[in-house]
Amino acid sequence: QVFGSMQKEGLQVTILSTCPVADYKTQESTLTLASPFLKALKTKEFQEQVCCPLLEQPNIVRDLPAAVLSYCQVWQIPAVLYQCYTDVIKLDTVTIEAFKPLLSSKVLKSLVKDASESTKMLKKFLTTTESHNNIYI
């Protein structure tokens, strides 16, 4: 339904998602991983450089982020998913700041007026939405 009213030509999709570090599959112990960290998954049509390492097998993405990325792959829409693996349940500034490298990406760069104020703004958003555990921007 989200894509039903959008024109698919010239569209490029960026998906931001978080999940627990415990869901990350690796040979090493997840206790030794520096959390939070980003991994990316992209459609075949996405030609831009990704801002972090690609997600390795056998890791999977679930729920709405997976559905959106799958839709984009089927309809040949350039899309990238940035998955943040974090060790906290409630969204916090440390987790949000893991997404900061994405602000320099071609698509998101035009949305940012002043990256130096981003930490201050993130803290403000978290304080005002703390009781709902969601951020609405």
Describe the SSE topology.
Layout lengths: L12 E8 L16 E6 L20 H12 L4 E8 L6 H5 L8 H4 L8 H12 L8
Parallel strand pairs: 1-3
Antiparallel strand pairs: 2-3
Any overview of this molecule?
This protein is an alpha+beta fold and 137 residues long. The protein has one domain (13-128). The protein is built from 4 helices and 3 strands; from the N terminus they run ββαβααα. Strands 1-3-2 form a 3-stranded mixed sheet, covered by helices on one side. The two termini are 21 Å apart.
Secondary-structure element order, N to C: EEHEHHH
Integer average pLDDT: 81
Number of strands: 3
Number of continuous helical runs: 4
Strand content: 15-25%
Helix amount: 10-25%
Structural class: alpha+beta
What is the domain total for the residues?
1
Radius of gyration, Cα only, in angstroms?
Answer: 16 Å
In the sheet with the most strands, the strands line up as 1-3-2
Which spans have pLDDT < 50 for at least 5 consecutive residues?
131-137
Dominant shape = globular
**How is the biggest beta sheet arranged?**
3 strands, mixed
Distance between the first and last residues' Cα:
21 Å
